[in-house]
Structure formats: structure tokens, C-alpha cells
Amino acid sequence: MLFRSEAARRNLRPAAAARYAGFADVARAGDRVRLHHRLGGGGQHMGVDRGGDAVDPRPAHRDLAGDLGLVPAGRVPACHNGLERPQGGDIGDCAGGLLGYHVGVAHRASQSSEPMRLLITGVNHKTAPVEVREQLAFDQDSLAAALADLRARCGLSEAMILSTCNRVEIAAAAEDDADPSGEIDRFLCESRKVQLDFIRPHLYHYYDREAIHHLFRVAASLDSMVVGEPQILGQLKTAYAVAKAHGAMGGMLEAVLTRAFGVAKRVRSETGIGESAVSVSYAAVELAREIFGALNGRNVMIIGAGKMSELAVRHLHRSGASRIFVTNRTHERAKELAAMFKGVIVEYDRFLETLPEMDIVITSNGAPFYILRKSQMKRVIEARKNRPMFLIDIAVPRNIEPAVNELDNVFLYDI
Predict the structure, then answer these.
(1) At 280, phi and psi to the nearest 5?
(2) Distance, CA of 190 to CA of 194 (rounded, Å)
């Protein structure tokens, strides 16, 4: 496993002490937290319809108001409390509201709306090996169609799909008397073309209070493989932005997510969780340094030019690597990444010819199939006259066939 490296482990800090991460104007009562928005206007409980002194009671088993607090009747500007923007996208600006609808707008008792429930279904690095996670992964291009299919078949009012190298999760809001978890499980199986028996042992389901708690932990990087890594918040915001752009947001789930973004910001700014945080890319480079020592004079190839690849190049550059080669299916993106660090561009359809010259290869390509197979790497290592070669696969689905590790003098590490 990649993160068993002592070098990477030395960079991890113990989890920060638990602290309350709500807004400053907080009133607490036992284990319940009531939150108010600073920008004025009365607040309404999630799950409670109220107008003046008239209150429609929610079902007795519902505790969402205690978890989420009060949601303002007015819209929340995107720049309030310094929310970060999603990766590769834009949630909004201060001129427009972050919430598309007035979540929690006051209703009179006679105009009660249906109470909602939250649920999360998914797998992560704790419950499923990479062999399972890569079977369930969604690529960015398929998310819109997947969201439409998910909402149509499951009757969900809101939905979001979060797919990263370490987790695949579906967050949803449904009517209070519904339990679509079984249909969501079937959606995962049918859309990813896997058998339910294959994924059932690895799935988890969270409802209501537990769902909110889980989303807050994910946003704050407390549930990450590398605790404190900053990428997950951007990935979560990207998933939110995609759902919002395709009409799958606009109610309770959106309110929970915007609160989670604020909580994550406070956790990062008011605790020590991010002081020595590392990422998957950082750990990959540390592992390369542990095996090769100094990286000066080593030829390093990065296959893929996304966010993870960019982070890997940054860490390689800081570690002394000066001969960095970049290849990507999209030439313009490879060109941009190479220019940042004075790297050399390799045409994607010719990178196999260049591999014998490389000492270290880091792959983070979005291809849904292996781009390096055992037969190809056998020819590469023969051309190198059996000089050792180090491969790090940080993609999900994986880019390199696991059988490559059976070759002498080829050392493959994956996520």
C-alpha cells in the first residue's frame, strides 16, 4: 500500500482535538446546536414549517433541526464566510445567491410542505478495496446523465454524486416516508454494470443526523485516507456545482452542503489539521524519494494533466526533480502543465516509446481502462536493460495493470 511508507507517515499529524465548528452566533442546548445567520431575517428549522407563532410539528423521530440549525429565509451569498470555489467550476459570486431557492422560507401552518429526509449511500477506502471502488467510479462526462437517471428512478427531490479516488457516494433528499436506499443500490449496480452481491458487503448507508455528520466529516477531511488533505473540499464543491447546474439541488440537501462548506473552512482555519497535511500526490513523491533518494538527475514522467498530476509535479519540482516529462490526451493541458515547471511535452500517442528513458512514472489519467499493461512494460524494461523502474498509479480506475508488478525490476504502487 502506498501510504505504508515511513516517509509519508512521518508527515501525518495526529487528528486535531474535537472542536465545535459552527458559526460564532451559536446557542447550545444539551447535544443540540441552534445556528443563526448573521445577514438578518428570521430563520426556520429544517423539517418544521412555521409562521409567526404557528408551528407545524415535524415527525417525532426527526432530529434535523438539532443537527443543521436554523436556515435563513434570505439567500446566502457565495462569498459569505469565505467559501472556496469548486475545482474547475464556479458556484457563484457575491452578486447572486448561492441557494437557488429560499430554503426554509416561512410557511403558515395551513400551508405545510412535506418534511424531507437525507440519506447517503456509498463506499470509501475504509470499506472497499480499490478493485471495488474503480468499478463504481463515475467520470465527469457521465455525471449529468447519471444524475437524471438516479432522480427519475428513485423519486429523489435532490441528489449529488461524489466520485473520487477514495470514495463513491450518493447524497440524496427524499420525502420523509420514503426509503429509496434499495433503489439507489440497484442504480449503482445497473449503471456501473456490477452485481449487487459484489458491492453489498462494502456499502454503507447513513440517514438524517448520521448523514449530516458524515458530510461534515468528509468536507473537513476527517474521513480522508490522508487526514487533513485539502483536495476533498474542492471535489465536494465540484460535485455540488454539477448537481446544481443540472437541477438536482435546491432544498434541504443544498442547505446541508453549504453549511458543511462553512464548517470545513472553520475546521481548517481554527485547528492544526492542515499544518502538515499531505495529499496522495505528495505521498507518491515521498515514496519515490525514499526509494531513489535524491531525485536530481532522475527522469520523471507524469501521465495525465489533472489536479492530482499538477500537485505531483509541484512536489517533484520542490524535491529537486528537474527533468519532468508530461503527457496527456489533451495536448493543450499538457502544454500548460509543462510550462508551469519547464517540463518537456511528450505526445500522448508516443509516450510508450519514451518510457524506457524514464526512472519514475506517475499516472493520474482519467481513462476507464489500463493504459499500461504487463506485455508493454515487459518490452520497456527489456529496453532499459533491466535497470529498475518505479511506477506509481494514483488513478481510480487504475491506469496500470496490476500484473505489471510481477516483472523483475519493475516496482508498482497504487492507491
Answers:
(1) -60, -45
(2) 7
